[in-house]
Amino acid sequence: MNSAEQQHHWSNWAGDQTCSPRDFVRPASRTQLIEAVTTAAAAGRQVSTVGSGHSFSAAAISDDFLIDISALSGVLDADLESGLVKVAAGTVLSRLNAELDRLGLAMPNLGDIDAQTISGAISTGTHGTGAGFANISAQVTGIELLSADGQVHQLDGDDSPERLSAARVAIGSLGVILSVTLQTVPAFNLHRIDSPMPLEQVLADFDRLVAQNEHFEFFVFPYTDTALTICRNRTGLALAPRGRLERFASDVVIENGLGDAALRLMNRAPSMIPKTARFSARFMNQAEQVDVSHRAFANYRTIRFNEMEYALPREVGPDAVAAVLEMIESERFPLGMPIECRVSAEDDALISPSSGRASIYVAVHQHRNAEWRPYFEQIERLLVSMGGRPHWGKRHSRRAPDLADSYPDWHAFQQVRGELDPNRTFSNGYVKEVLGD
Fold first, then answer.
1. CA 8 to chain centre
2. How confident is the model at residue 249 (pLDDT cuts 50, 70, 90)?
3. Which listed CATH number (3.30.465.10, 3.30.1490.20, 3.40.50.2300, 3.30.1950.10) goes with 75-186?
């Protein structure tokens, strides 16, 4: 296979998850991918796949056989009438969005980062925000899943509903995803309004703000009392995107350029964090735009960081945010990046963080050059006590025996796992930790 090569080092987007697999292959085609998997499985190897490497967790880390699926990319088939679109597993969301746009279609909901592959995004439970919208995996109506024996399983809601519900969020533990079929919608524009508000008001009016906006979220710096709310709603208004100069000044220069410089300075002088956070909050300005959906969803990101995110029952959301901020401030944690808060409808993927319940997602961040573990772990204990479930692609310290009680369909997932991967070919250290041997 001309795409095979020895790889001595691989790292994720943030640069802090690294591995040196025995073999690292980049199949150039579907046929080569199937050949690589079956050959490795026959030799008793453990197989992991990687796309754009945007997970903060060790989901893609391997010391054995690692496969880069990024060459399997693009729209494979599209039914414009039904909106069903078949997509190769290695397709990065930004490319997928552009291709859908050319077809007059769109994803109904997206996260604020579009650098992930579609298979990686669904496998870890990646989500956007909106009370009426479940995570990205809920848009999947079919999956082509390659098992260790070379069989390609056609999973859909008619013939294999439980297997599809398991495979939509499975952290790569059931097999290699070859393609996914998505339920898309006609292309639409979003009216986006970014608006600073007193944090106390946001928390008090949280349910109203969520109900009044199709896609609502907010950010708040620790040690401050002002939140930046972001409201996105479908609109028939004419396009009025931000100008190129405005985007450059806001996204490149201020938010990412000066933001990264400020975080590096705070890493060296943590006592400056509260004052610097209050200063940064002053740059939260009112902004408004109308743009095509995928551009209004996504944000420009160059700052490298670590992130932990937990999904909690929707009803505890405001209390959870307040408790996290209170802990950070009372313990004087040196966390200078914003806390993010988003919402999601319930879904039926068996081990999705939002499985069976409407959820609020609370995310904490730390610059990649700063210590994060002791602070994340204390916050994690708080969020777990409030019924939290971890985002599979982000930092957490949970393990299978503890996690099993958090998911009502945990044992149903394990049954499907036993059927599709009885020999645990598709495993690594992370999968063993969170799903068990």
1. 27
2. low
3. 3.30.465.10
